[in-house]
Amino acid sequence: xxxxxxxxxxxxxxxxxxxxxxxxxxxxxxxxxxxxxxxxxxxxxxxxxxxxxxxxxxxxxxxxxxxxxxxxxxxxxxxxxxxxxxxxxxxxxxxxxxxxxxxxxxxxxxxxxxxxxxxxxxxxxxxxxxxxxxxxxxxxxxxxxxxxxxxxxxxxxxxxxxxxxxxxxxxxxxxxxxxxxxxxxxxxxxxxxxxxxxxxxxxxxxxxxxxxxxxxxxxxxxxxxxxxxxxxxxxxxxxxxxxxxxxxxxxxxxxxxxxxxxxxxxxxxxxxxxxxxxxxxxxxxxxxxxxxxxxxxxxxxxxxxxxxxxxxxxxxxxxxxxxxxxxxxxxxxxxxxxxxxxxxxxxxxxxxxxxxxxx
Length: 359
Ligand code: NAD
What we know:
Layout: E1 3-10, H1 14-31, E2 36-40, H2 45-51, H3 57-65, E3 68-73, H4 88-98, E4 103-109, H5 122-125, E5 129-135, E6 147-150, E7 156-159, H6 166-181, E8 186-191, H7 197-210, E9 217-222, H8 223-232, E10 239-242, H9 244-257, E11 265-269, E12 275-279, H10 296-308, H11 313-328, E13 331-332, E14 342-343, H12 346-358
Parallel strand pairs: 1-2, 1-3, 3-12, 5-10, 8-9, 8-10, 13-14
Antiparallel strand pairs: 4-5, 4-11, 6-7, 11-12
Helix pairs in contact: 1-10, 1-12, 6-7, 8-9, 10-11, 11-12
Bound molecules: nicotinamide-adenine-dinucleotide.
């Protein structure tokens, strides 16, 4: 049966960058014997404008039926004053929760051609290729009880609960080990086992699960050290696996090592490998509609989709090679532009990747 991709451009630059990603999928269909059905739907602020909800039931249904979801970005100034329950970001959270996307995969890759874009010295970051696997639906962001209460003495106290069950830890561990098996076979599990009992269990379960992966080398690091090592010597890492909150922070730090928010894709997977794929950046309202946004993060998200949900690793490789090729040609959108390069707009960049794929 033909596989189906739900295409959700969202808001701001979402439509512009997703248009380029769809050009890549169209090229796969015409030139590479790849067949897939695409269906587009609204999410975020544009969905709210259309029907009063950032995640209409029809969009959720499409996302549930599809084999994978390609998302642009949501949000923008226009919707900032809305009640929190109907803000664009609720659409994104609703998709993650509704699809049970518990594993967030964020590669931090620095193409050598862009080494100057990093705030770190080129020799520290050139050729950086880390995969951060963040648990996405548990931990302190979801744990109960939570809230702000008033004590007998009248003082207020805020509280949240860090909780992970053994199966929750085990399933994210499996994702990390499986990914490492296809890479350099090293997993670093990041915790705070010296202080938090919950992450003491995390470490225990990771060690236990590693027995099923004798070819993988498992190491452990406290989160404070991991943050330091990421900026000191990031190339020591292959796959990092960690909790929701630690992953939130470390993956942003790792992304910034590469200095180019417009280059980084992400995947969020469920238990069966179905996933939602999106660039890590937002809807960039400051440049929306100008045709200058970098579409490469979204195009690379398509490559991740092919690799992790559609079992088409060779096509994923082809897209990634095409992206390297356009960078080698010196083509740059304004966010990654430097002297001596040729500045291109969003659609010219998409067209260049399509041409490079055909070479
Ligand atoms: P942002 O990522 O949208 O933009 C930050 C900066 O990076 C801006 O200067 C922007 O122009 C630039 N930028 C981002 N993507 C780019 C690209 N592809 N090419 C070139 N430049 C790019 O973050 P923000 O400004 O903090 O947020 C804007 C809106 O996006 C907010 O409403 C926020 O809630 C939303 N947001 C959505 C997501 C998502 O949909 N996953 C993620 C983050 C932020």
